[in-house]
Amino acid sequence: MIEGFHHVAVICGDYARSKAFYTEVLGLAILAETHRAERDSWKLDLALPGGGQIELFSFPAPPDRPDRPEAKGLRHLAFTVADVEAARDRLEAQGVAVEPIRTDALTGKRFTFFADPDGLPLELYER
């Protein structure tokens, strides 16, 4: 039934700030950018390597996401990287706070977490 992963939709609080974060800090390419006047909303389609996408939405006055401890629903987004230390260093050089690198007890792979401008947990998981 399922043939692959298509996209994840993210609602942001400050469109310009989130657009800069996902394009300039994370380096995702813009596929399309659409202003939907009837909704006072922007939609930004961003390309992920391998064909997936992130759809970044803005809406007037969206509610804050639940804080930690974790709530039901989407837990985090995880991105594959070749070298978790190099990726962490790149993020930190751009002022992004990154948690200490840990090792997954089940796979032996290294990973770390950071957050987007709205506090959405993002993970870097070493290939």
UniProtKB/TrEMBL annotation:
Domain VOC: 4-127
Keyword Lipid metabolism (UniProt): no
Signal sequence extent: none
Single Gene Ontology MF annotation: metal ion binding
This protein's UniProt keywords: Metal-binding
Coiled coil: none
PANTHER family, A to Z: FOSFOMYCIN RESISTANCE PROTEIN FOSX (PTHR36113:SF6), LYASE, PUTATIVE-RELATED-RELATED (PTHR36113)
Entry protein name: Glyoxylase I family protein
